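FIELD: query
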Amino acid sequence: MSDRDFAAGVPESELPDGSMIAGRLGEDEILLVHDDHRVHAIGASCSHYHAPLAGGLVISGTIRCPWHHACFDLKSGGVLRAPAMTALPVWRVEKRDGRFFIGARLERERPAETAIPESVVIVGAGAAGVNVADTLRSEGYTGRIVLISRDTDLPFDKPNLSKDYLAGTAPAEWLPLHPHQYYEDQRIELRLGETVAGVDTAAKSITTSSGDRIAYGVLVLATGATPRQLPGAASNVLYLRTQRDAERIARKAGASRRAVVIGSSFIGLEVAASLRQKGLDVTVTSPDQTPLERVLGKEVGERVRAIHEDRGVVFRLGQSKLDDALLRDADLIVAGIGVSPEIQLAKDAGIATSDGILVNEYLETSVPGVYACGDVASWPGGPMKEPLRVEHWVVAGRQGQTVARNILGQRRAFDAVPFFWSAHFDVVISYLGHGTGSDEIEIRGSLAANDATVVYRRSGRTTAVATVGRDLVSLKAEAAMERGDVRSI
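FIELD: result
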């Protein structure tokens, strides 16, 4: 963060249109942004993981975070896009004697209130479900909100489980998305440790595992996905989905020397990196010939493998059968072999499903008054508008925001470009779009130097972009894909 003191103002010549300057006013870290002939003063760090927004991208009155692509309104500081969930402070800016001065902090304008529909019941409290509830309240909804979670812990930051938390560099206190008091203050009825036994779409009600019957005006299914289990695997194989799972793996790791990770998926490799950082000997076994090749391509997959091998991770790839001797010698076994969408509740209720719950571009299911979002939702997405189901934290959060706005009558199609990030030791890969099935991959820069852009194409059309060490390139590619201007990538 810049040590520049804004108390004396900023000369107009130092802040031309299209520029920004980071600095301080007293104890506040502030970013001055000159966008379209108007100067804004906004909090200098993203409210998600505190990335410096000075490295971000300004587009039409908004600013986007360079790390995880959260988006904020420059005028109000409001969250426009996940993964951020908390608005940023904003200040008044005045121009005097050719200098810009920061004035008083501005109060956030209250949105118009509405209690229509009378109630919203949300099944699932991951990124999608919590963002539905948050956005409803921030957009002025005053009706009843019931948020049902099968987990006994507060809704948590799931990407952190396989990364910093499992590696031991993030305390458990960082995991909750909100403290318990937040849900009480926002009048969100958070029901932990409950599931939904059935949905009656005719009566517009659900029945919970505790036997409660709850009527709804609108129902949101954000049931997510669960880890696939190894057929016939021993009971000592662990999986990672919940905070309790991560705690169990971390405890076991503390008393272990050798670990085996089954599967070279993103989750499997992130677990491998975290366990290696804790000092364990780690072996990754998988039927894949190259890690992550299906999504990232062979060259990027080989680079990811090299990053892990340089840190001491051992790979046994192309293994169609599990090595019993390898498993016997392991003190800790973790499987990361993909997930399956939780669609049974929807199927039993007569809601259309396939590989997920089928929704239209507004994330509405086949039953009026019922929406689906997050890992479980299959929507017409991507440049080809094909049925698409994406298991990404950011996508789930943005879909939750879209559902909330559509519940309130804003009728917004979900057209955000899918985005995720994956950390492999100190190397972070950012990925935009949906490049599975690409027939052409172009690499610009150097993967070995962790400074590269990878463009994926199918039939000559750009479908995805991955970057390493090029945050601003990733943001600009996202904006180009939103405009449909993929030729400029």
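FIELD: remark
The chain is about 20% helix and 35% strand.
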